From TrEMBL:
Pfam families assigned: DNA_methylase
Source domain of life: Bacteria
Keyword list, A-Z: Methyltransferase, Restriction system, S-adenosyl-L-methionine, Transferase
EC numbers for this chain: 2.1.1.37
Source organism (scientific name): Streptomyces heilongjiangensis
Active site (record annotation): C70
Gene3D superfamilies, sorted: DNA Methylase, subunit A, domain 2, Vaccinia Virus protein VP39
Family matches, as PROSITE patterns: SAM_MT_C5 (PS51679)
Family: Belongs to the class I-like SAM-binding methyltransferase superfamily. C5-methyltransferase family.
Name of the protein in its database record: DNA (cytosine-5-)-methyltransferase
Length: 394
């Protein structure tokens, strides 16, 4: 029996399954992501999910995973998915009635990628897996609710909702819509393991763990081990620079002192809500570098960027093609300094294992990280679904 992973990317879901002792077969068209999956030991079919026939897979798939491309629905994109949403709903209804109108609807979409959100239902209807797990940006939640209704009509138990990755040990307040469905058990969201304000233990059990911070995830401020000598990054080929730049050295010195702030382009507060004030006008955080000024992680140069201290989780990390300048930045007395975040740092904040073999140019590696499901979140979501099907201990 096989777990099929649509739009598999570099292996976020696959790594989550690996923790549970399981493997999947991914379908992915991007060559860099396919190379990453191969280097990480994940089986992949390199093809377009929308073109791949389902007939050869009937009777062979026990679990279905899918994270359709989110660019057209993401708040960081052009939001063409909002214009195409009605066409996507129509595509879901047509598939449920046994009609495949994808070609016609795709041509009518403002962005043909929007219609990829209906592909998981096509596979589910044709393959009837025992369990299903879908993930997308929160804007897709109404479409997931539509899919859930169709699946319930086929005998599935289904749950849809938005989860915050920080509630499951991910050092990032990444909010994503999920659909979980099962033919063999009641589909429910995973129980949180972490919370922003744990509070004391009670008679009903111990308090949840606090949210994992960036400092925790990156090992900043640790006195019992040296700070890794990471380079500032290389050229388009992805090779490292022979020695850290002076700014990177200053940044590494600040690591040892624990003086950090994270600055991204998502204007979010730590609980995932929107920030209404200009962060640049807010009082200075308590973490300041002794050399003067504040180190922040800035995603693009937008003034409404979010500021996060190192003792908080990161905001949602995004690495769009048009804006890959996610950098540590400090305005000091000697002028501004900027150091681009490394692939290793970004991967750690997304909970990929240390040394995960991302392939392709630096730009493509960052894109893969930003688009992936955090493996730790994937494990939490899948754990309640797979035991009844595959006998894996919860």
């Amino acid at each position: 029996m096989t777990v099929l992973d649509l739009f598999a990317g570099p292996g976020g879901w696959s790594e989550g399954l690996r923790v549970l002792g399981l493997t999947d077969i991914g379908i992915e068209i991007d060559p860099a992501a396919c190379a990453t999956r191969a280097a990480a030991g994940h089986t992949t079919i390199r093809t377009d999910v929308a073109d791949y026939p389902t007939a050869p897979l009937r009777g062979k798939v026990t679990g279905l995973i899918a994270s359709p491309p989110c660019q057209t629905f993401s708040a960081a994109g052009l939001r063409a998915g909002n214009v195409d949403r009605d066409l996507c709903h129509q595509g879901l209804d047509d598939l449920a009635r046994g009609k495949d109108t994808r070609t016609v609807l795709r041509d009518a979409c403002a962005d043909p990628r929007s219609l990829l959100v209906v592909e998981p239902l096509r596979y589910a209807l044709d393959l009837r897996p025992d369990w299903i797990a879908l993930e997308e940006v929160p804007a897709v939640a109404p479409l997931f609710a539509h899919v859930a209704g169709i699946l319930r009509g086929l005998g599935y138990s289904a749950w849809t909702g938005v989860l915050n990755a920080a509630d499951y040990g991910v050092p990032q307040t990444r909010r994503r819509a999920f659909l979980l469905a099962s033919r063999t058990r009641t589909a429910t969201p995973p129980e949180p393991t972490h919370t922003q304000d744990p509070g004391p233990d009670t008679l009903f059990g111990p308090a949840l763990a606090p949210w994992v911070t960036m400092a925790d995830a990156l090992g900043w401020g640790a006195t019992d081990r040296p700070v890794p000598t990471v380079t500032a990054g290389g050229g388009k080929s992805g090779g490292p620079e022979p020695f850290p730049t002076s700014a990177r050295k200053a940044l590494m010195d600040a690591q040892r002192r624990g003086s950090w702030v994270l600055h991204t382009n998502r204007n979010q507060m730590p609980d995932g809500t929107r920030q209404t004030t200009d962060p640049h006008s807010a009082p200075a955080p308590t973490f300041t570098a002794k050399a003067g000024g504040q180190w922040v992680l800035r995603h693009s140069n937008r003034r409404n960027a979010t500021v996060r201290r190192a003792d908080e989780p990161a905001a949602t990390l995004l690495f769009a093609k048009a804006s890959n300048d996610v950098s540590w930045h400090k305005d000091g007395p000697a002028g501004p300094e900027s150091v681009r975040i490394t692939v290793q740092e970004a991967a750690a904040l997304q909970t990929f294992p240390t040394g995960y073999p991302f392939q392709g140019t630096k730009t493509r590696q960052f894109e893969q990280i930003g688009n992936a499901v955090p493996p730790l979140l994937a494990t939490a979501v899948l754990r309640p679904l797979v035991p009844a099907v595959l006998g894996v201990a919860a």
